[in-house]
Design brief:
This protein has two domains: 200 residues, FAD/NAD(P)-binding domain, CATH 3.50.50; 173 residues, FAD/NAD(P)-binding domain (3-Layer(bba) Sandwich), CATH 3.50.50. It contains ten helices and 21 strands. The strands form six sheets. Strands 1, 2, 3, 4, 5, 6 and 21 form a seven-stranded mixed β-sheet that branches. Strands 8-19-9-10-15 form a five-stranded parallel β-sheet, with helices on one face.
Length: 387
């Protein structure tokens, strides 16, 4: 890595040391491309270290490994959070990946045919930039009237570690995604009394269908148009879950794959939430209207007391804050237009931003290989002379 006037230079900067960033770095290493790997926190894959303790992958081991380094066969079919961390650490070691920790990229600008990056600790000038910071950059924390006066505990799912502290308490989980569904299970298993807010119509998927991981089905069906794939899957899903209205749920008007492609929304992959609903061990609640001193007022007029509320309300990315100029990079809804390919800005790539029906870890590996191949070719091409 060269330097001039306090500015370090190399071919590529990869930002983020989660699975997507590590995959890109490993593929660049294999391709012989010089790079720097920047991580804003003090540890590798920090998001995985903060996830709640019960977390296991919803995708199976054989489809969740990163390029050139499969997950160990000794792992269970659905590895735990700690096993994923162990795997990512082994992955970094296998490819001699050494992130520069404590270097949050606060600004990235295209200048004179290169990318100028600024972190709290240094400045970089690179020919190409890969942002692998993902959607988990900033927790989304909705606000409702009366929250300031609520005397219970409110925490985002990013702050939730275990339901043990809530044993014997009534706890409301807001959000019926994969985090909300598994947190509700954890609360029940730890002796709390969970309820869960479901605001609209939903899609459900089993983790396995006929004993086969749901990801295997998704990969096979991904070759078909989403509506056709959903139509083929519908009878099997009805056989698995039955009539959702009997659980108090409304079925989404489109299938899971169509929803993924149109709304980029991952449906709940059931690992036990449905059983809790069937057994009346998890109470469904509609959208929140307001908070009270002791609990929550719901849109249907009902009111209930809760000692704690867990916001499983998702995250948002920070691409606009970092890039400034995102014209063409993001769509009208503020979501990335592409992932795994060069964006509308020269030599700028995103990795891990495609909400894939075939699994986010698997997709990150596919994108990483493609990015490394593109950069290996473009960075070795002769620079055209000025006219």
């Amino acid at each position: 890595m060269g330097s001039a006037a306090g500015e370090m230079s190399t071919d590529v900067a990869v930002v983020g040391s989660g699975p997507a960033g590590l995959a890109v770095a490993a593929c660049l290493r294999r391709a012989g491309v010089d790079f720097v790997l920047l991580e804003k926190e003090a540890v590798l894959a920090p998001s995985w270290r903060r996830h709640y303790q019960r977390l296991h992958l919803h995708t199976d081991r054989s489809h969740s490994g990163l390029p050139y380094f499969p997950m160990p066969r000794t792992y269970p079919r659905y590895p735990s959070r700690l096993q994923v961390i162990e795997y990512l650490e082994a992955y970094a070691k296998a490819f001699s990946l050494a992130p520069r920790f404590g270097e949050e990229v606060v600004e990235a600008r295209r200048q004179e045919g290169a990318w100028a990056l600024k972190t709290a600790a240094a400045r970089y000038r690179v020919r190409a930039l890969v942002l692998a910071t993902g959607y988990n950059a900033t927790p989304v924390r909705p606000h409702w009237p009366g929250m300031e006066g609520y005397q219970g505990v409110v925490l985002h799912s990013s702050e939730y570690t275990s339901g043990e502290r809530f044993r014997g308490q009534d706890v409301l989980v807001v959000g019926f995604g994969n985090s909300g569904g598994e947190i509700a299970i954890d609360l029940f298993e730890q002796g709390a009394r969970p309820s869960i807010v479901v605001r609209g119509a939903v899609n459900l998927l089993p983790r396995e269908l006929l004993g086969i991981p749901i990801l295997t089905w998704a990969i096979a069906l991904s070759k078909l148009p989403p509506k056709v794939a959903d139509a083929l899957a519908a009878p099997l899903l009805r056989m698995t879950f039955g009539d959702l209205s009997r659980l108090g749920l409304r079925k989404a008007p489109v299938g899971a794959l169509t929803e993924l492609n149109t709304r980029r929304h991952v449906p709940l992959i059931d690992v036990g939430t449905v059983a809790l609903l069937r057994n009346k061990q998890l109470q469904l609640r509609p959208a929140i209207r307001a908070f009270t001193k002791d609990g929550v007022l719901f849109e249907d007029g009902a009111e209930a007391a809760y000692q704690a509320v867990v916001l499983a309300t998702g995250y948002r990315h920070r691409l606009a804050q970092v890039l400034g100029d995102v014209d063409g990079v993001l769509d009208a809804a503020g979501q990335p237009r592409t992932s795994g390919r060069e964006t509308s800005l020269p030599q700028l790539y995103l990795c891990g931003f495609y909400v894939a029906p075939t699994g986010m870890l698997r997709e990150a590996g596919v994108e990483a290989r493609r990015i490394a191949k593109d950069l290996s070719a473009s960075l070795r091409a002769p620079v055209p002379s000025a006219a």
